[in-house]
């Protein structure tokens, strides 16, 4: 786990405090994908049209770092992380998609890189967000209440944990635990950290899970060195299915609203969409370097 998070931290670039958000009303339409490109939030239609930048950081001497964007189920708020004070010092922010001046900081300046808010994910109802941080010598999953900004450790493991994602009913969280041999298992726990149980424990490096909107399936990536594959697991039958072997090693995964398609980054670093059965792969747009997409 530490080598994966170190890679993330080394890729983070310090940025300034001033933030200007571009108007969102024209940028947001149905079946759009939002993610990071050149360290800023961008959106694009699923058919590859309408590529738009959503954030614009204009501070001389500073470059923005966009990380881990996610949104509420009603699409009213987008949460994401960036590092305004120092290189890799990630903090959690949110803004209202209908008000381009409404930016709220949820976590303060971290004392070190690893203590920042990595791999953040907002709950569908917007009341909470999870994130991963190493605040006491171990990477753990923390939950912040967005109204009070109260933070609590909900994973409480003796191994590293990260990559948490919420169930569509806000009641459960799927995440990855990393053993000393870097094997990663997927677990599910209640939103308060109770009733933890293994979901995928097959000796592989399994991470970047994503819960389907219909609640029936979880998609995740399986890693072998610099190569990755995209799989799904049916929560009722526990049947696993390979979707594609062509996945960029640091790709995240996100579901379409009707749970029949997945968006991810392919091995050629291009934004891609594929049917959940592995058919109909398409490349979205002509940009390379788009990362951490989610279906808006």
Provide an overview of this structure.
- This protein is mainly beta and 296 residues long.
- It is built from 1 helix and 26 strands.
- It has a single domain, classed as Neuraminidase.
- Helix content is 3%, strand content 48%.
- The strands form 7 sheets. A 4-stranded antiparallel beta sheet has the order 4-3-2-26, with no helix packed on it. Strands 6-7-8-9 form a 4-stranded antiparallel beta sheet, with no helix packed on it. A 4-stranded antiparallel beta sheet has the order 10-11-12-13, with no helix packed on it.
- The chain starts with a helix and ends with a strand.
- Residues 2-29 have low confidence and may be disordered.
Which structural traits does this protein have?
296 residues, disordered N terminus, mainly beta, four-stranded antiparallel beta sheet, Neuraminidase
- Low-confidence regions: 2-29
> Strand fraction band?
over 45%
Strands side by side in the biggest sheet: 4-3-2-26
The radius of gyration over CA amounts to: 18 Å
- Considering the protein shown, what is the CATH homologous superfamily? TolB, C-terminal domain
The fold-level CATH name is Neuraminidase
Discrete helix count:
1
Instruction: Based on Cα principal axes, name the global outline.
Output: globular
Text of the CATH class:
Mainly Beta
SS class: mainly beta
The CATH architecture designation is: 6 Propeller
- Our count of domains comes out at 1
Biggest beta sheet attributes: 4 strands, antiparallel
| Share of helix, binned | under 10%
What's the β-strand tally?
A: 26
Average pLDDT, to the nearest integer?
A: 86
């Amino acid at each position: 786990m530490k080598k994966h998070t170190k890679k993330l931290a080394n890729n983070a670039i310090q940025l300034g405090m001033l933030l200007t958000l571009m108007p969102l009303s024209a940028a947001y339409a149905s079946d759009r994908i939002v993610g990071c490109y050149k360290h800023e939030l961008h959106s694009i239609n699923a058919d590859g049209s309408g590529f738009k930048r959503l954030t614009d950081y204009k501070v001389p001497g500073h470059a923005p770092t966009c990380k881990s964007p996610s949104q509420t189920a009603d699409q009213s708020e987008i949460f994401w992380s960036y590092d305004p004070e120092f290189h890799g010092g990630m903090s959690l922010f949110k803004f209202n998609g209908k008000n381009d001046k409404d930016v709220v900081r949820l976590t303060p300046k971290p004392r070190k890189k690893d203590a920042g808010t990595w791999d953040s994910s907002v709950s569908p109802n917007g009341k909470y967000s999870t994130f991963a941080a190493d605040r006491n010598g171990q990477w753990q999953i923390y939950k912040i209440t967005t109204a009070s900004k109260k933070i609590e450790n909900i994973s409480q493991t003796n191994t590293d944990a990260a990559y948490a994602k919420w169930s569509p009913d806000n009641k459960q969280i799927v995440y990855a635990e990393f053993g000393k041999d870097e094997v990663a298992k997927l677990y599910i726990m209640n939103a308060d950290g109770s009733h933890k149980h293994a979901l995928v424990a097959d000796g592989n490096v399994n991470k970047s899970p994503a819960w389907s909107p219909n609640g029936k399936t979880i998609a995740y990536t399986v890693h072998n060195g610099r190569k990755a594959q995209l799989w799904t697991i049916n929560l009722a039958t526990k049947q696993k299915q390979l979707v594609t072997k062509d996945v960029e090693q640091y790709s995240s995964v996100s579901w379409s609203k009707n749970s029949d398609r997945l968006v991810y980054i392919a091995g050629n670093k291009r934004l891609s969409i594929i049917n959940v059965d592995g058919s109909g792969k398409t490349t979205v747009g002509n940009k390379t370097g788009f990362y951490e997409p989610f279906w808006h």
